[in-house]
Design goal:
Radius of gyration: 22 Å
Shape: globular
Number of helices: 2
CATH topology: Neuraminidase
Number of domains: 1
Number of strands: 31
CATH class: Mainly Beta
Distance between the termini: 48 Å
Helix content: under 10%
């Protein structure tokens, strides 16, 4: 059966709202949209998913699924059936090597990012056809850099290009990161320094026996920085524990600030604190066995207000909130391209939506089965009234 090639939705502007009032969108109360699971599948055809690395939604509500462990990607319909599949591990034409993520551009080409290359495919009459391979050395022009996916590779729909991150590790645990815009011939269209983000709260181990070498470890429930890119290469950034999001254009200028001072991170529960302290004790014991020193660690009283951020297939910005440890639903505030708060989304906790595979009132996510096996989940959101 012939199929029309799907495209990503074109974007219509930047986030321009300076500050979004809590609970309001264009003067109206914000609706709550609660999602219910419509489909749950742990396999592609007769084969189980090994590791679902990335999802990309099409305009027809189908989804491209990358199984990173099997080096195979699938096009899955809303009925859970496999429409098309392709891939195997290797270095030959069309083979994949450690793939991390994928996206479809405005012409229907599928870009798959690996550790050392970008492979480009096209779907034709339910058949996936390999077109070309772009190797690191073609577009990096620097042997000291190593590429890795922009999570996901972001397609600029007018020019049909992809964004690729590359890092130079050096002698620091914090690498120097660059962003490359690559066209389908492998030429570098533009190169940026990656946005700098504040250091998260870390536990710093010292190893005097090894010349004072220091190894950092993330502090449980400490601060984190979150960065998400839209398909226009603009990006949103969270750098504090508060609900404060800065939206930047592709040159780094701030075009919007979204602040919700009324939203605080939930308290760390007694059980969560106990688990975090047990983890720190394990790190301390491991460090001491090799002559390390760990400082006194205090677990924060609250979690950061924001858990994650991402842009979906329509470039709506999702700001996912940290939730109580016993919560059964995850939550996110969803903003449109004018900066207005559209709605608050709720969906079953344990389903991961951070890949941006959402369009309209439909989202594809990743859940887990009883043995922690990955499952593909289709969620439909419905209005549940207004948030008070």
């Amino acid at each position: 059966m012939a199929r029309a090639t799907t495209t990503l939705a074109a974007l219509t502007g930047l986030l321009l709202g300076a500050v979004v009032p809590p609970g309001l969108a264009n003067g109206q109360e914000v609706p709550l949209r609660a999602g219910s699971i419509q489909l749950e599948t742990e396999s592609a055809g007769d084969q189980p998913f090994g590791r679902i690395s990335w999802l990309t939604m099409t305009a027809d509500e189908e989804v491209w699924v990358l199984d990173g462990s099997a080096s195979v990607f699938y096009l899955i319909g809303v009925d859970g059936q496999v429409v098309a599949s392709f891939g195997r591990s290797g270095d030959g034409p069309g083979d994949l090597s450690m793939p991390c993520c994928l996206r479809v551009d405005a012409t229907g080409r599928l870009w798959v990012q690996g550790m050392t290359r970008l492979d480009i495919f096209r779907l034709t009459a339910d058949q996936v056809v390999f077109e070309k391979r772009l190797l690191n050395e073609v577009f990096l022009h620097d042997n000291s850099l190593a590429s890795f996916g922009a999570r996901p590779p972001v397609l600029l729909t007018e020019s049909n290009t992809a964004l690729v991150r590359a890092a130079r590790m050096g002698n620091s645990y914090r690498p120097e990161i660059h962003l490359f815009e690559i066209d389908s011939s492998g030429e570098t269209v533009r190169r940026w320094a990656y946005p700098e983000t504040p250091e998260p709260d870390r536990i710093m181990y010292e190893f005097p026996r090894r010349g004072g070498h220091i190894i950092p470890q993330m502090l449980p429930y400490g601060s984190r920085s979150h960065l998400a890119r839209s398909s226009k290469a603009m990006y949103a950034l969270v750098t504090t524990n508060e609900y404060e999001v800065a939206v930047h254009d592709l040159d780094g200028a701030v075009v919007a600030r979204i602040s919700r001072p009324d939203v605080q991170g939930p308290s760390v529960t007694a059980s969560e604190r106990s688990q975090a302290e047990a983890q720190v004790r394990q790190w301390d014991q491991a460090a001491r066995r090799v002559g390390g020193i760990i400082p006194q660690v205090t677990i924060p009283a609250r979690k950061p207000a924001v858990n994650r951020i991402w842009f979906d297939a329509e470039d709506r910005l999702w700001v996912s909130l940290s939730v109580d440890g016993d919560a059964v639903m995850s939550e996110a505030d969803v903003y449109d391209t004018t900066g207005a708060l559209l709605f608050r989304a709720q969906w079953p906790r344990g389903v991961e939506l951070r890949h941006g595979a959402a369009r309209g009132t439909v989202a594809w996510g990743i859940g887990k089965g009883p043995l922690d096996e990955p499952r593909l989940v289709l969620i439909r959101f419905r209005d549940q009234g207004s948030v008070k």
